[in-house]
Amino acid sequence: MHEDAIELAKSLPKAELHMHLEGALQPELIFKFVGRNGRDLPYRSIEELRAKYEFTNLQDFINVYLVGFNSLASAEDYEDLANDYCEHAQAENITHAEVFIEAQAGSSMTGTPLEAILGGCIRAAEEWKKRGVELLLIPTFLRHLSENEALKSLDELEPYYDNIVGIGLASAEVGFPPENFRRLFDLARELGLHTVAHAGEEGPPEYVWGALDDLGVERIDHGNRAIEDPVLVSRLARDQIPLTMCPLSNLRLCVVDDLRNHPLKKFLDAGIKATVNSDDPAYFGGYLNTNFEEIIKALNLSTGDVRELVQNAHDASFEAI
Fold this sequence. Notes:
The protein is an alpha/beta fold. Helix content is about 50%, strand content about 15%. The longest helix has 17 residues, at about 75-90. It is globular, with a radius of gyration of 18 Å.
């Protein structure tokens, strides 16, 4: 019944706008990097690590995510990781990807030099552009840390302003409203950078309002809970604010209890530029095509819906395709 829509989704050239590079860190790579860098890992096998990929909320996921994140230590690691993602992207007919990188966390939490993080990613991006995959980099800032720390991190990124396309706001959402980062986002815009923010995943609709009105973002990452506020839904449709939605992530983190209850189709029907993305594919059960397949089946999406979702992502990208 859904085969035509699924095959169309696989065949169309696609853009992915919500994918955390460190979230593409497969267990095999984690063990490779740990061995390369002489770091400890609290798991004895790939199977034991994979068994931990069961989450009841965002914080559960972050706790496991940090184990893999701590395996990264060098430019070679980041280049290998970016290459691995781009190989998957090319196989799935993704021609344009805007990926989040944890530059602030990498330099402050693991001690990996910023030049290693960005250098490895930039080398991979340059190579894959020749091979038909455009990889754009969006450093994210951690909302549970202070704005002053974020401003310092943005300043440290100055040598790479020409190599990044924008900034994002991520990490645990509840209790850390967007308005805490007004100065950061104002400065980013002054620097000519695009702006996005995670909002309305676990946080209330007010966080989506805050991302729009206090931070002035161009896209909302996730945005699920905006569906609870009809006025906000109208605003998103009127201003054509894209939502970078992540079905399998939402299911695995219990943002929705069943993909049949996912709001993506309701947003589409309301005239909002909803898109499909993989978020952290190594942890949530699939890359972009699997997210399309599962949400098509769950919401009975048509080939017309698929074309709209794919075109929305191209339209919402920060470089025209």
